[in-house]
TrEMBL record, chain A:
Source species taxonomy: Bacteria, Pseudomonadati, Pseudomonadota, Alphaproteobacteria, Rhodobacterales
Cellular-component GO terms for this entry: plasma membrane
Transmembrane segments: 20-40, 135-155, 167-185, 192-222
Record protein name field: Inner membrane protein YgaZ
Family classification: Belongs to the AzlC family.
Subcellular location: Cell membrane
Membrane topology note: Multi-pass membrane protein
Designated gene of the protein: ygaZ_2
GO annotation (BP), single: L-valine transmembrane transport
InterPro entries in alphabetical order: Brnchd-chn_aa_trnsp_permease (IPR011606)
Coiled coil regions in record: none
From TrEMBL, chain B:
Pfam families per record: AzlD
Record protein name field: Putative membrane protein
Upper taxonomic lineage: Bacteria, Pseudomonadati, Pseudomonadota, Alphaproteobacteria, Rhodobacterales
Transmembrane segments: 6-29, 41-62, 88-106
InterPro entries for this protein: Brnchd-chn_aa_trnsp_AzlD (IPR008407)
Amino acid sequence: MASTTPKIAFLRGFRDGSPFFLVLAPFAGLFGVVATEAGLNVFETLVFSIAVIAGTAQFAALQLMSENAPTAIVIASALAVNLRMAMYSASLAPHFAGAPLWQKALAAYATVDQSAALSLILYDQEPEMSRASKMAYFFGVISVAMPTWYCFTLIGALGGKAVPESWALDFALPITFLAMIGPMLRTPAHMAAAFVSVVGALAFGGIPFNMGLLIAAILAMLTGAQVELWLSKKVQADG
Amino acid sequence: MDKFTVWTVILSLAFGSFGLRFLFIGLIGDRTLPDWVMRHLRYTAVAILPGLVIPLVLWPAGTGGEPEPARMAAACVTFAVGYWRKSVLLAVIAGAITLYGGLYLLN
């Protein structure tokens, strides 16, 4: 619809993004609980969520910190998890070109899996949308997710100390990661990357300072990209 | 955990993550990345998370590193439901039920 105004686009983004509340509220709450269990105070936990606003990387950093991994390795691993943000940034950039810098900075801060995925799908379907409407839709999507992430981190952090040990919260993180991995395995290339990651992490587990994980991740990334290339060549050849 | 480490990690991740997000939207503009770069970036999350999680499942911290059937079963169910239903939330719920069911039955 070429007639879409930014206001309508924002409301549409709000509507499309609302269901994320159901996913993000428990995850943010869990982050609050696990972070305080790991020894962070409520203020540090909340700042973590506000400043980094990337659940997977936050959980990964927390896990490595509680394993007493060296600080540089913690940061490198968590940023590696977040490298996909650069991919979203590259995909969104043409749609936001020409917007004021403050809007671009705000949009960059709010670039997360949910906002990038929904927005890129819509921009693809409706290329005639104006830049203002595209931007408004993006902020509509994030308008539910962001406050949810902050508020439930805080609730989890405040309630965390009340959680008894019998709840086996040590296993909350592994379950969170495993739950995220399943839906990621969309293609044979993703499966190959995950497989190499597992085998590599076990094979290089003995390397000090958790370096084995980074080596495994690099090999897995190369594998995923290579398998994708092979498969696309095969499709062309077959077709 | 000492305060210096905590704040170093939080601030580095804050600036680093913003940098990755701002890189193209704010700095490089609408110049597109070469295909081979995008192709590698697509696999970053799936390349690191399985490797991060596998030792936690095989040698869980909660049991002092001893493999433990309830946690192992919960891990398998979580992964299977996530893969099957493509839903993170359903996978977490299924995994939690399996973990608590298993711990209850085994204790």
